[in-house]
Write a structure and sequence with these properties.
about 475 residues; EC 6.1.1.17; Glutamate--tRNA ligase; elongated; mainly alpha; Rossmann fold; three-stranded antiparallel β-sheet; Glutamyl-tRNA Synthetase, domain 3; protein biosynthesis; aminoacyl-trna synthetase; three-stranded parallel β-sheet
Length: about 475
């Protein structure tokens, strides 16, 4: 096991067999955070030995998603398929040491064995037919059959480890059958490759989903057969979707990059994901820097975490509110450019973002507000138009339009023009402000009307007030 003086080295080892979702990326956040919190090294490893299902497109999405979230890796990406010669070299060492043996049991024979075991209410497992033992006579080798190679799992005793999430775990070796570690064509299997990788990359802490718990005792036995001590393990509880099912693409999970496209901030995503299985007291909103200063493996939760999009939007809204107006404008600008809007370099955007950020929970919603200030026309909420823009208010609107045309274009002058019209027609502020808002920005619900009008601009306001 690792000691306090050993440099921390963690890894994220996804299989590129589909898009990466929030449940997957949380298994990258924690090892990344642990490495960063301990001045360690974070390795990205692509476990692409499933040739039929792996794709470069899936690799690209993994790397793109991690880059967006700022989960930078120090080494890699390392591809398992490029390490086949190394795996075969270690496999030969295990064979020479007597830890591996050929097994000629066919798939049909194995299936029949499992059916008999299940019928007898036994755990289905390989029965060691081809495992050599002193005084044992093995069956005759069938002609023309390429064997698999099986790892000679220790018999008797237990595999024990102190899991940083689950506590002490002990599994009897007699519960483990002899694992296939190389296929008939000689290609090594997952559990073997993982051990070789973790040894070669000097991984000190394996932080991964608890769907790997059953693999861990097998991997520990392979570590020890190779004369190595295993790393520290932390098996994270499952992330559930909003329906309480395991998060997966089959259950409606979205690619991580879709959250970027929907206007979520990477800082908010890191904040939200960190809280899906880890806590620092009652702190709900925190920065990336705070997370890294606080993070350790001692406060990882044992219970499954449930994704809640409403909570994610709330967390994102808090980060939007806290952002500097200029920094927010820098993020909103590309969204507006993609909509084909002009005049975006006139200096108004930071002020617009500052005015509306308290009302928004994503960058897309903020961009929707900002678009109103740069678009040639405004789309009105028809129900609000019918309610507030009535013929009875037309005379006051015309008078206001005339006063605004002649006034200096600043908040104080605009506010003064409103007061004069309110006094002249005996109106209350909402009676005039509501229709003005609907006509000029499309909805009756906005921040201070004088601040909004100033930012829209005199020319646009003059035109829009006539748009009845």
């Amino acid at each position: 096991m690792t000691t306090a003086s050993t440099p921390v080295r963690t890894r994220f080892a996804p299989s590129p067999t589909g898009f990466i979702h929030l449940g997957n990326i949380r298994s990258a956040l924690y090892p990344w955070g642990f490495a960063r919190a301990n001045q360690g090294t974070f390795v990205l490893r692509i476990e692409d030995t499933d040739l039929e299902r792996s794709s470069q497109a899936a690799v690209d999405v993994i790397i793109e998603g991690m880059k967006w979230l700022g989960l930078d890796h120090d080494e890699g990406p390392v591809y398992q398929m490029q390490r086949m010669d190394r795996y075969k070299e270690v496999l030969a060492q295990l064979q020479a040491a007597g830890h591996v043996y050929p097994c000629y049991m066919s798939v049909a024979e194995l299936d029949a064995l499992r059916e008999r075991q299940m019928a007898a209410k036994e755990k289905p497992r390989y029965d060691g037919t081809w495992r050599p033992a002193p005084g044992k006579t093995l069956p005759p080798v069938p002609e023309g059959v390429q064997p698999v190679l099986r790892f000679k799992n220790p018999q008797g005793g237990s595999v024990v480890w102190e899991d940083k999430v689950k506590g002490r775990i002990e599994i009897s070796n007699d519960e483990l059958d002899d694992l296939v570690i190389a296929r008939p064509d000689g290609t090594p299997t997952y559990n073997f490759c993982v051990v070789v990788d973790d040894i070669d990359m000097a991984i000190t802490h394996v932080i991964r989903g608890d769907d790997h718990v059953n693999n861990t005792p097998r991997q520990i036995n392979i570590f020890r057969a190779l004369g190595q001590e295993p790393p520290v393990y932390a098996h994270l509880p499952t992330v559930l979707n909003e329906q309480g099912e395991k998060m997966s693409k089959r259950n409606g999970a979205k690619p991580v990059t879709q959250y970027r496209d929907e206007g979520y901030l990477p800082e908010a995503m890191v904040n939200y994901l960190a809280r899906l299985g880890w806590s620092h007291g009652d702190d709900e909103i925190f920065s990336r820097e705070q997370f890294l200063s606080w993070f350790n493996l001692d406060h990882l939760g044992r219970s499954a975490a449930q994704f809640d999009e409403a909570k994610l939007r709330w967390v994102n809204a808090q980060h939007l509110k806290a952002m500097d107006d200029q920094a927010l404008a820098d993020k909103v600008l590309p969204l507006l450019q993609a909509r084909g809007l002009n005049g975006l370099d006139d200096g108004r955007l930071p002020r617009i973002c500052g005015l509306f950020k308290d009302r928004c929970d994503t960058l897309v919603v903020l961009a929707d507000w900002a678009e109103v200030f740069y678009a040639d026309s405004v789309k009105m909420v028809e129900e609000e138009r019918a309610k507030h823009v009535t013929e009875a208010i037309y005379p006051a609107l015309d008078t206001l339009a005339a006063k605004l045309q002649d006034c200096a274009w600043d908040k104080a002058s605009i506010a003064a023009a409103f007061k004069e019209v309110l006094a002249q027609y005996g109106l209350k502020m909402p009676q005039l402000a509501m229709p003005v808002r609907v006509l000029t920005v499309g909805t009756a619900h906005t921040p201070s009307v004088d601040a909004v009008l100033e930012l829209v601009g005199k020319e646009k306001i003059s035109i829009r007030l006539q748009n009845r």
